[in-house]
Amino acid sequence: MRTREKAALAVAGLAVAAAGGTVLAGTSGAVGPSPAPSVQAAEASCVTDGAGMCTVQHALGTVPAAVVVSANTPGQFNAYMLNTVQGSYTAATFQVRAMFNQTTPKAGGAIWFSFAAYGGAPVTTTPTPPTTPTPPKTTTPKPTTTPTTTPLPTTTSAETSGAPGGGSGVGG
Questions:
Q1: Among 13, 48, 123, 168, which has the minimal tally of Cβ within 10 Å of its Cβ?
Q2: What sign does the dihedral 63-55-82-110 (CA atoms) show?
Q3: CA-CA distance, 111 to 80, in Å (whole number)?
Q4: Partners of 68 in beta bridges
């Protein structure tokens, strides 16, 4: 690009910026998680109920993982704190609560705020197979072996065999 073209582009960008537009100096590829998370950012207003709460609709189509809110107070004496209500996120809405201080809700009043709702990853659950109790391990007693004894051979003694000599015979 020649210097003259660069200068013309810069002047055109300044004219757009002066008119209140947005000037993008360049483009870049998307950086971040894949697939890209769903995000909705918007401005909203509503009239609070007696507890300082109101329900806000979003277009994520899934329960948000997080919602960030920021109060936009148009008047200097209209300051309020704004929070999301725990447990109120659904696939279509969430609730906010406006408070003047820790104990006083902004009841029945109009509030203006910006929000960014970040879609969570789809929740997938893997079923856990049921566990069956393992029967207790029993051990069968091992049979005890009784030692067997083999009788020793018996010897015949001379007195019992009737051998000559040593008898008390009568006779002659």
A1: 168
A2: positive
A3: 9
A4: 116
Strand partners, 55: 95
What is the secondary structure of 107-164 as a DSSP string? TT-EEEEEEEEEEPPPP--PPPPPPPPPPPP--PPPPPPPPP-PPPPP---HHHHT-S
Q: How many angstroms separate the CA atoms of 5 and 14, rounded?
A: 14
Tens digit of each residue's pLDDT (9 = 90 or more) over 27-47 = 445 565 566 678 999 999 999
The pTM is what? 0.50
Q: Mention every residue, 6+ apart, whose C-beta is less than 8 A from residue 103.
A: none
Distance of CA 50 to the CA centre of its chain: 35
Q: What single-letter amino acid sits at 24?
A: L
Residues 46 and 78: beta-carbon distance below 8 Å:
no
